[in-house]
Amino acid sequence: MFEREARSRNRGICLSEEDLKNPSRVAEALTADDLARAAGSDAVELFMVRASAAAPGFDADMADVADEAGRVMTLLLASIASVSLIVGGIGIMNIMLVSVTERTREIGLRMAIGATEGNVQQQFLIEAVVLSLMGGITGIIFGVGASYVIAQTLGWPVLVSPLVIVIAVVFSMAVGVFFGFYPARKAAQLDPIEALRYE
Fold this sequence. Notes:
This protein has about 200 residues and is mainly α. It folds into two domains: about 5-55, no CATH class; about 80-195, no CATH class. It has helices at about 15-20, 25-30, 30-40, 45-55, 60-100, 105-110, 115-155, 160-190, 190-195; strands spanning about 5, 10-15. The radius of gyration is 30 Å and the shape is elongated. It starts with a strand and ends with a helix.
């Protein structure tokens, strides 16, 4: 299928007209050695140009494959992020429920001296939002730091968008409000008399 010839400074890959008409067959027949020899030369680029000229749909097919891979990766990362948000939210809700239970007498005392249900609910919602914001900011610091470490180690370019950081902060606040609402509502609906008797 291929005939190999010596070129200046390296060995390249020669393709016949028949090879160029069937790029998929060429791709299957290329070995790791062929690619390693071609990596230092312009042979790969030349193959892509010639393959595109011989098969006009070749570039479109490669673009479709790249787009599909990008979509799959985006869905995978979104799934992982969703599970992480749910797990983190459940953790916040459990911490807040324990906090409500441990501070039952304090809640009863506040309500006995005039705090409304809204005041108590607001207090616990603010605590839940602050707790989730602390987690979100910690995650942002670790994420940005890991990105730069990977970039320095592997030489990859890094782009950290400020918009993405703002969206992350807003999402962490939303998780705090959503998962902190039930404990805050439970605290606000306590009966002051029963709360003061709680041991």
